[in-house]
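Task 17 of the worksheet. Students: predict the tertiary structure of the chain below and write it out as structure tokens. Keep your answer in the requested format; marks are given for formatting as well as content.
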Amino acid sequence: MNRLLTTLFAALEALLVVGIGIGISLVPLTILWAFQYGLQIDWIVFWRAAVDIWLLGSGVDVTMTLNPVIASSLGFAGAGTPFVLSIAPLGFALVTVLLGARAGRRIGEIPHNYLGILAAIATFGVLSLGATLSTITPSARPSIWQGALLPTIVFAIGLVAGLVLGSRTSVAARGTASGRSLLDRLGGRPRSRAVATAALTGGAGAAAVVMAVSAVLVAALLLLSYAKIISLYEGVHAAVLGGIAITVGQLAFLPNLVIWAAAWLVGPGFAIGTGSAVSPLGTSLGPIPAIPILGALPSGQFAWGFLGLLIPVLAGFLAAILVRPRLVAALDGRSSAGILIGTGLLIGVVGGVALGLLAWVSAGAAGPGRLVDVGPSPLLVGAFAALEFGVAAVIGLLVGRPPRD
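Model answer:
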């Protein structure tokens, strides 16, 4: 009986996460259907749109075929041919992870929690597959295997994280023996342990600092560009309900904008369409959609734009300064210059990989024609970040008291 109750409870948690994720788009779209369109359009159209948006948020590719009239009005070359929409509004993935973490904590409080985790993941996968199949039309066709797998992986990440964090005390108690056995296996390599810990901590910390500064930068740009954003809202003529729907969609892309700001600070910047560039050296944009939030994009040339590169450099230096005392202590003061230099370079690699992965998940195709290239280049962002973090981290680790061999 306990196992059955655990399974049902976990399945309900998965159902709630799917329902909330789809409902974020479905509720404003349904209000739009009822009051602005007067119930004259089949509601299933709005259901399919909400599910497609939710699937996109988890990285699912959706193949679109525009109506010829709409395609001709866009003015983009190739707008009338099928194209793949692959850019993910990461706000939906973030909501799924957070709700999954909440579900993981709740499941961790009941008996047979590992059975509950498996039941929740299986239920989520079935629901995700069903939602994907319900949206397939000639005009919008999500990838079926991605629709079943990718949202489930995003949910599972949050679920496992919530389970581990929610029961960290008991997990630590149960994992003491295995943890000690791992340390015993590494007992002959204390320097490897110390270097790995410093590299992971420093690299993650440097990337986190850049992301935090990027979030502040995006908030400042939105405030400074308030008038331009409002004028773009007025130009869309979407009325109140349409404006609410547009705002919800833009909020889902805020995590993307923060990552793009980080790419700007690192150096490579990002693109809003093939041939465009938004970087510290200046902004070069061609025709872009009249999306209000894009009014916050910087324009023109920046005489002092290169100063943005100081942020990742300072982040790498600060991260190295903070991890150095523990690193030196773990090595019993026997840290050589070679070990410090190697650790600094590893900090750069970890931070570069972290920002490169974030750039990868934030970019994609946002439409036909030139809009197939939107977002930063993961390779360039990762490489620039690794170089800036690494050099700064090496300097940070070498400052202070000279190391002893």
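Marker's comment: DSSP finds 15 helices and seven strands in the chain. Confidence is low (pLDDT under 50) at residues 171-188.
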